[in-house]
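Hey all, sorry for the wall of text incoming. These are the two entities for the joint prediction.
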Amino acid sequence: MKKISFREIIDKTSEKLIEINHKIPEEIKEYIEIAYKKEKEIYSKKYLKIILENIEIAEKRKIPICQDTGLAIVFVEMGLDVDIEKGEYKTLDDIINAGIEKGSKEGYLRSSVVSPLERKNTKTNTPAVIHYILTEKDKFKITIISKGFGSENTSRLKMLNPSEGKEGIENFIIETIQKAGSLPCPPLFIGVGIGGSFEKATILSKYALTKIGNKDSEYRKWELKILKKINDLKIGSGGFGGNITALDLRIETYPTHIAGLPVAVNICCWAHRIGSFEI
Amino acid sequence: MKRVYFPLKNEKELELLKIGDEVFINGKIFTGRDAAHKKLIEIINKKEKLPLNLKNSLIYYTGPSPAPFGKIVGSIGPTTSKRMDRLTIPLLKFGLKATMGKGERSKEIVNAFKKFKVVYFITFGGCGAYLSQFVKNIKLVCFEELGPEAIYELEIEEFPAIVGIDIYGNNFFDKMKV
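and here's what came out:
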């Protein structure tokens, strides 16, 4: 049994949340640098240059890259041989939320979480959306995405007919990006979830966003083919035209029912604020 | 590079602006997004007096992150303008002359902006840290209870933007579509 203290989870969650909001991961920055070099359309190129400057300023001044510091999406990968010392907290959700609240306050993140109907701000950026993945042994890994909602709002799910197959999936992805246009702050990162059930496909699409930067994918060839089709839409950075609308796309799959083919497309802006830690 | 000052001294200044023009915005502007727009419209529907003077003004769709100790403001980039489309039209007859945000807007907005001679400025999405450099002062105007969604008055200097919709009914995003 591995013993993990609630204090360590809170502190590391808080630190990681601040870090990803002030400093974009190197591999995400690299995608943008490459796009800046490649882009020829003048408005898009100028925007990409400002994005790179913005990343530098945020890091130097220790302020968020984007004022929409997002809704915290947390993936917890946890083995069965982990024992959590819980202190005064009742659940692991409570412990993680305590970390999100601490990080939001200390990192000067915007309070962006409200009750859905009354729209009352919780002022703590909690509750986070937390997904648990049970693994083996004593693994304990937390991945946080600070998910902006300009892009989240343009994400979609469709229950395709199985006979529509790969072509149907491609068409739905392209249609979703086309509809989103300039709204989600392109150039984009795209997570695609295929299979499972109605809810499983959407969680897979979010999980696919955690795999951006890791080129080792079962579906790499297909991903690159779809990416090319998306870039042929010429939406460009900020919707200003040009050859780069998306920076990368990742697919995650899960077995599904004989009658169904769920497909979820989760769109993320260029400011993909993601990070993880293990204890 | 063209320069515009808000509140406008003379609305004819907008006649010089064409889609795609890169501009620097100066002066005093308001912030406002979903919740604040909703409140303004409730006030208008009740035929009560608005808590701010919209004449010749610009509304910037943003909800800034909190200012760290010793700084004027946190990150202050644009939010998606399209969500404000339906909420913008009732404000036009109060003299609102410009809006600023990110992304394309509806045909209704393009038409209404032509009719009321209003300009839409696009600024750089996700670049709130960069854009904070051009904000020299921030002051609460109303709806404090909305937190980051309250209406603030910003004093800005050389704030960079692109003309997205001009008073002649032209839309930058239509032009950029192949």
